[in-house]
Amino acid sequence: MIIDVIGDIHGYADKLIGLLEQLGYVHNGQYYVPPTGHRALFIGDLIDRGSQQLRTLEIVFAMLDADVADAVMGNHEYNALAFATLDKTLSNHDSNGAHYLRAHNDVHTNQHEAFLAELPFGSAEHQYWLKRLYEIPLWLETDYACFVHACWDVNSMAVLKPLLTKNNCLTLDALVKTAQTPSLYHDALERVLKGVETPLPDGLAMVDKDGVKRTRVRVRWWLEHLNGRPLRQIARAPKSGLVQIPPEVIAKDIDFVLKTNKPVFVGHYWLTGTPEPLSPQVVCTDYSAASASGYLTCYQLDNQQPLPLKTNNFVQYRHDSCT
Q1: Alpha-carbon span 99 to 119, nearest angstrom
Q2: Which range, of 49-53, 149-153, 211-215, 277-281, averages the lowest pLDDT?
Q3: CA-based nearest residue to 277, from 255, 247, 308
Q4: Is the separation of the CB atoms in 16 and 296 below 8 Å?
Q5: Contact in structure between 93 and 64 (CB atoms under 8 Å)
Q6: Per residue in 162-196, pLDDT tens?
Q7: Phi and psi at residue 278, to the nearest 5°
Q8: How do strand 26-27 and strand 32-33 relate by DSSP bridges?
């Protein structure tokens, strides 16, 4: 079987429809039917940013309900749940004094703007789709591959596992515990859904694409021998950010080892350019579809021969080339 691993959609249903049809999926009036011998897998971040949030969710969940697709949760789905969930034990509160797992500050509200524009906060539709998001597992492992939104960290997964359902889905209790900081559960959730980070040198901060100042930087965990290398060499950041890291700064105390021999599929990283595997073992299918110049991307994985990973297994829907 061919597993069509589809990258971060972020509410761009038109791009999703274009990619599915390019791959040979046909809508039967209820859901997109895959070509014979194919199955779709969505790598997370279905929501936020784009203007077709509801349509995206309807397409994806119709396929999940028809059992022609699978999905894993992205950090944006997790954030949507936390943003909508009250917890009086936390200090995050809105102007009315209500406490939420994810604070209702300007940064977070702006990040959820597109989602809440179509599904108004607290509405029946909003509540329905939040319940559906709980059905998406944090990760999937088969006998041929591993699928997770940001990082395949088995140590973090072992921390989270006692909180989750047997299918690795969140519960309300798991959401509350992973939202509490500082905590081992929060750190584990961050690893799985956001990747491996390390502190920047004292006094150095970067501003990300959303205008948020960061004092930590993501690292390319799929590389070997992270510690002892120049931080600039292993950091995952825009060039404008990388040049701010002094070349003499050496990475240290990064506690991560990839503990699987299977291929690993992720999204999350806003890549650009011609798709290619990140390493002989790791593929990212997020090629910035949420930007005008980015393309929704798929990797077609043959589950009978998952390795070696091949550049020509990538398929992109190039929306700006369509007539």
Answers
A1: 21
A2: 211-215
A3: 308
A4: yes
A5: no
A6: 999 999 999 999 999 999 999 999 999 999 999 99
A7: -70, -30
A8: antiparallel
